[in-house]
């Protein structure tokens, strides 16, 4: 499984790796090396089966390991530089540039932008170079997003027969449509068309394509016209271990140092521009006895922490480190509402259903989303999962939050329990895992559990 980031951890890669492990695969998550992270670490295997199946037999579960490869070659320095500033999506320390260096970078910015566009995705090409030398042959390559599909195709072409003897296959996991992203909207149209063709060529060269919801699958089908149907494998949370969830209850309030009378509005995930976080902070100030708590990471981390220290937000804005996905539901259950304030500024955003949305529902926490994020807005209205703010303007966000908190006051835990039940019945990972595992079986029919015979190795 190729991940164009440090996988520290990446929840979708964990879920899909566990589905593969339940099929008997030995799984390597091939990620990018990062400071303060080990080059190798093991990952706990699955504890639940697919729909209609019991939890897998431990003897039939393949091992899962994260291996982080260090970029090499001429592009390695580019990737390291942009990782330091957060431009590549890989966490790192912010770069400190003197005034002359800032001026030089400003003057060179048009050329730097042209380099980013023409060699996209240039920041991970050093990682690609290392994978080309060091990645072991596999029966199946699952490429998580546009940053990972090119090296997956190259690995398949270099080793057309996998270790099990079956033909090697590539699954492209289109977690979004890169050419329709927020950043791509600023690229001149002729260059964007070049990137669209590049992305489409990589995607359709894969043996199968999966994505995160039916609406994005339909959009990608119209754009790419792939030879086979794109399978929807949503980011539904895995069935939670109730003991872990219960052991984490109260931790969010405790670490945020909030008293029992303060309502918690939770934000999960990446911190940075274009996510409505400044508007969310202002909105919570308009909600009586409420605080915005952010469990996040990314290039907006320092800005978020600065807001914590601002006297205007004292006790009403708290930034905490991210939590491992296996523990997240217990923390999320402490919140009174989850806020997703990102505006619908691109086709990707309008079709998005991020992890934080499904995780809130699994915990029984009502969500507030913004009008125009079409898929989430439809689900919230259809299944009575929270409220829709008319815009990202702070007053509108506050109005939606007040409506949610007021309803919780009136209905007690009843509404929360209905949300959690809806999540279990309609948005559970076992159903998504079943569809994914069926796809894998159709692609690599020779794959089987490692205990098929005394000398049978697990497929990779």
Describe what this molecule looks like in 3D.
Helix 6 links the parallel strand 6 and strand 7. The strands form three sheets. The protein has a six-stranded parallel beta sheet, with helices on both faces. By secondary structure, the protein is α/β, with parallel strands linked by helices. The chain has two domains: 225 residues, Glycogen Phosphorylase B (Rossmann fold, 3-Layer(aba) Sandwich), CATH 3.40.50.2000; 183 residues, Rossmann fold (3-Layer(aba) Sandwich), CATH 3.40.50.
- In terms of structural class, how would the helical and strand content be classed? alpha/beta
Query: How far apart are the first and last residues' alpha carbons, in Å?
Result: 10 Å
What's the CATH superfamily of the largest domain, by name? Answer: Glycogen Phosphorylase B
The CATH class assignment of the largest domain is Alpha Beta
Known CATH architecture of the largest domain:
3-Layer(aba) Sandwich
Q: Helix amount, in percent?
A: 40-55%
Rounded mean pLDDT score: 87
- CATH domain fold name of the largest domain: Rossmann fold
Strand and helix map with partners:
Blueprint: E1 2-3, H1 11-22, E2 27-32, E3 40-42, E4 64-69, H2 76-85, H3 99-118, H4 125-134, E5 140-144, H5 146-158, E6 169-174, H6 189-205, E7 208-211, H7 214-224, E8 231-232, H8 242-248, H9 251-256, E9 263-270, H10 277-285, E10 290-297, H11 301-309, E11 317-320, H12 325-332, E12 337-339, H13 347-351, H14 355-362, E13 367-370, H15 374-383, E14 386-389, H16 394-411, H17 414-426, H18 429-443
Parallel strand pairs: 1-5, 2-4, 5-6, 6-7, 7-8, 9-10, 9-12, 10-11, 12-13, 13-14
Antiparallel strand pairs: 3-4
Helix pairs in contact: 1-18, 4-5, 5-6, 8-12, 10-16
């Amino acid at each position: 499984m190729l991940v164009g980031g440090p996988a520290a951890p990446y929840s979708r890669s964990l879920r899909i790796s566990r589905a593969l492990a339940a099929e008997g695969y030995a799984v390597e998550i091939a990620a990018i090396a990062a400071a303060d992270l080990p080059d190798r670490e093991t990952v706990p295997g699955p504890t639940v089966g697919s729909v209609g199946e019991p939890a897998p037999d431990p003897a039939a579960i393949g091992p899962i390991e994260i291996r982080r490869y260090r970029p090499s070659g001429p592009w390695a320095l580019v990737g390291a530089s942009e990782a330091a500033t957060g431009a590549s999506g890989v966490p790192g320390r912010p770069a400190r540039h003197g005034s002359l260096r800032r001026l030089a970078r400003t003057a060179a910015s048009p050329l730097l932008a042209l380099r980013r566009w023409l060699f996209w995705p240039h920041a991970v090409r050093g990682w690609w170079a290392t994978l080309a030398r060091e990645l072991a042959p596999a029966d199946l390559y699952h490429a998580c997003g546009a940053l990972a599909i090119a090296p997956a195709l190259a690995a398949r072409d270099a080793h057309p027969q996998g270790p099990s003897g079956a033909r090697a296959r590539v699954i492209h996991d289109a977690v979004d449509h890169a050419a329709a992203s927020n950043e791509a909207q600023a690229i001149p149209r002729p260059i964007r068309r070049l990137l669209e063709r590049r992305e489409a060529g990589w995607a359709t060269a894969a043996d199968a394509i999966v994505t995160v919801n039916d609406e994005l699958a339909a959009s990608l089908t119209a754009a790419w016209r792939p030879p086979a149907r794109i399978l929807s494998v949503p980011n539904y949370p895995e069935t939670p271990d109730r003991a872990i969830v219960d052991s984490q209850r109260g931790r969010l309030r405790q670490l945020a140092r909030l008293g029992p009378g303060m309502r918690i509005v939770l934000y999960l995930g990446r911190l940075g521009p274009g996510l409505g976080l400044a508007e969310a902070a202002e909105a919570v100030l308009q909600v009586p006895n409420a605080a915005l708590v952010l469990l996040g990471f990314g290039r907006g981390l320092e800005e978020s922490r600065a807001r914590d220290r601002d006297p205007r937000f004292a006790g009403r804005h708290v930034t905490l480190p991210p939590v491992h996905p296996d523990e997240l539901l217990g923390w999320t259950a402490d919140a009174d509402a989850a806020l997703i304030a990102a505006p619908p500024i691109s086709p990707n955003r309008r079709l998005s259903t991020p992890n934080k949305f499904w995780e809130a529902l699994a915990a029984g926490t009502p969500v507030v989303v913004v009008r125009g994020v079409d898929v989430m807005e439809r689900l919230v209205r259809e299944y009575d999962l929270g409220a829709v703010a008319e815009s990202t303007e702070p007053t509108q966000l506050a109005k939606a939050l007040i409506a949610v908190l007021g309803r919780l006051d009136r209905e007690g835990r009843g509404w929360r329990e209905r949300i959690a039940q809806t999540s279990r019945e309609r948005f559970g990972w076992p159903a998504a895992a079943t569809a994914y595992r069926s796809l894998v079986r159709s692609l690599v029919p020779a794959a089987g559990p490692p205990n098929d015979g005394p000398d049978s190795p697990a497929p990779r």
